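retry 2 of 3: previous attempt timed out while embedding nicotinamide-adenine-dinucleotide. Reduced batch size to 1 and resubmitted. Inputs unchanged:
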Amino acid sequence: MQELSHYINGAHVKGTSGRFADVFNPATGEVQAKVPLANDAEMEQAIAAAQAAQPAWAAVNPQRRARVMMKFVDLLNRDMDKLAEALSREHGKTIPDAKGDVVRGLEVVEFCIGAPHHLKGEFTDSAGPGIDMYSMKQPLGVTAGITPFNFPAMIPMWMFAPAIVCGNAFILKPSERDPSVPLMLAELLEEAGLPKGILQVVNGDKAAVDAILHNDVIQSVGFVGSTPIAEYIYATGCANGKRVQCFGGAKNHMIIMPDADMDQAADALVGAGYGAAGERCMAISVAVPVGDETADRLIEKLIPRVEALKVGPYTAGDDVDYGPVVTAAAKANIERLVQTGIDQGAKLVVDGRNFNLQGYEDGFFVGAHLFDNVTKDMDIYKHEIFGPVLSTVRAQSYEEAIGLAMDHEYGNGTAIFTRDGDAARDFANRINIGMVGVNVPIPVPLAYHTFGGWKKSMFGDLNQHGPDSFKFYTRTKTVTSRWPSGIKEGGEFSIPVME
Ligand code: NAD
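retry 2 succeeded.
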């Protein structure tokens, strides 16, 4: 049995806590490795190494820090196949989707190459007699991030690339379900020239997270995962005086107007609803056709598409639409929620129960499900399922459709499919959701924009990547300097006002 490690101060370090978690191959259901779960002492060792290394890294000029990121991009491309294979083996997603996971992270690394520009401060010449005023964006020191299982390459890179290029050290506590790719990323970044101790990977569970939250050296915490944990980390981190941003769960609605191209909408829904087995925070999990006639046309188009979805292991090649879900517990939770949908009166028009894949009977595969006639009070509507289950809620008007999305507690992403520019503009303006697609089902912003939901999908003030990330990972210092000899004329006792 392979025993994974931590990556502390430039070296793979075995776990010493005696506690481990199983890392599964979701396609076969086998335990393929065990990952150590850090205790306080291991976390403190990493934090001490980060604290020792960070000042010298912050003193490296921003251009040189950016060059490490340039080299890192080359190495990610060099090792793309290896990374994707390791990612699929632990997560279960298809190889093309795993490459997308790496590429969407790599794009943020590319954005970070622009650090010298983003870190420039402001300057006012002659703000007063002999007075100049300027601001600096300085690193925070030692920062940390806690990431989910569903994007084990992308989300760590969204956090550590901006943190590090700003001159911080970063402690990554990845998901214990798929920790191998984060460890590989740390090795690659050192190969790219990053000094030891600046990026460390400490594996673990709640104990490791709590060690981060209660350590005074840690200046900021980034979190991506489910909403209850996001709320806990936000509250605890803030109470301990840290800068915190937490991104939580989702229930993304796609509104289909009567004038939409129904084939385009159905294709979009199938990709966005079932891709990655629905384990994406930007997956569409609720389709809201406007009017019964639209709903009937949509369902008619969806059924054959959903029934034709090919479910299989990543090793089956490109001819698989989605793979298994991450654990047996995730599978059981999806099956439980599907049963509540049936019990509470939704109509299961594509029944993925009893899905069986020959030769992979112990894998965590879930067949594709499509529900019609879902209502607001049902559990499958209220809760995030995080599986290949699409719910259709029929709305009788545009106002009812937009109201559904606005009333839902989550506010990560949403989309409208229409040919009517007026409806699309109104939707984009009024909706209380952070990321909006117009005829685009998964509107994940590109690296140079920012990513973040609203409502219970986000706790904090600044989004991930884009310009916000440079704000999150730096603090501003403003200097007022005067060089004439006026200071010899005696003290001033009223608050200075520029002449
Ligand atoms: P999770 O909340 O179970 O775990 C996320 C991280 O928190 C992991 O590193 C885990 O070890 C840690 N953790 C788990 N329990 C903890 C506890 N009690 N105390 C402290 N830390 C704990 O989430 P997951 O299952 O890995 O990921 C799926 C969730 O993430 C979904 O809800 C999904 O919507 C969400 N997600 C959100 C975004 C976003 O940007 N909004 C992106 C990706 C995933």
